[in-house]
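User: Need the bound-state model for adenosine-2'-5'-diphosphate:
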Amino acid sequence: MSRNIAIIGATGAVGQELLSILEQRQFPIKSLKLLASKRSAGKTIKFKGKDLTVEELTHDSFKGIDLVLSSAGGSISRDYAPSAVKAGAVVVDNTSHFRMDPNVPLVVPEVNPLDIKKHKGIIANPNCTTIIMSLPLFPLYNAFGLERVSVCTYQAASGAGALAMDELKSECVALGQNQTFERTVIPFQYAYNLFPHNAPYNDGSEAKAKVKAPKGYCEEEWKMVAETRKIFGDESIRVAPTCVRVPVLRAHSEAINIQFKKKTSVEEIYAVLAKAPGVVILEDPANNHWPMPVDVSGKDPVFVGRIRQDLSQENTFDIWVVGDQIRKGAALNAIQIAEML
Ligand code: A2P
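Assistant: Bound-state model below.
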């Protein structure tokens, strides 16, 4: 059955990807409303060869809408998702605002699709790094049990939005030509550099009491812990994350070290990952070629390689995981949820 759909944040990095995936997957659409800030009202965006006009988001934007895909930031979802639900729509929300609300399912379709049924109008799309980690991790968790997971991330600019991607491109050009560059979006030099993730950090001070992470962690890192527990439905899962931004445009990479409960082997891990939904093993050892952001950008699956034993500890293994942040990390996951709805 065709649906009346609205996209909040249609002009953004995730909004644009939502449009291209809706078109590619021939999502059944009766009408499509593109919503963004006042700044973008009146702009046109092409969809299936037709020009659609962007409208300013208001609380009255949702009359007759069945499905809202929301990607304009947490405070926008906080303020407008309730209006959409009141108007009778279901909201698939890409922001962090509702993720840990016990009344809101947090869904990766390959992991916990049945949680979709529990929704009361809002379904949350998890954090991008968490989605990408969960695809290989969940089948391994089911097969061998997790003792502990240690993960280091190498995160792309796209996670900070379209303006951050543009800024990285301009900064690379400027610094490459020995020119000075004035940043407005990213807080540190990004071209030819990397930095520990700039999400709010809890230093234990009174001033940081509202940061949603324990002392010593930033919010991005804590999302990987708390959201993985919620998606897997297991509060005992132990994850030790370190999140880093690297000057890559749109795919996140993750080095994941996993200690299993049940004794296993590299061969058994290959066998599980070879059958894991949404996962592709990409390894060409003869050429030292493993998944890289440039291989993976614009693709749907999460790619895994460098599957090996951690020789420092029993029953512990390393995997290298790369996934497109805008696609499976955000827009594709949201549309898969909408398809299941
Ligand atoms: P706009 O382009 O009009 O600013 P990204 O994550 O790539 O930075 O994209 C953010 C998205 O959220 C954009 O589509 C942006 O629209 C939208 N947005 C930002 N602020 C608002 C707002 N106050 N109301 C509606 N949409 C907003």
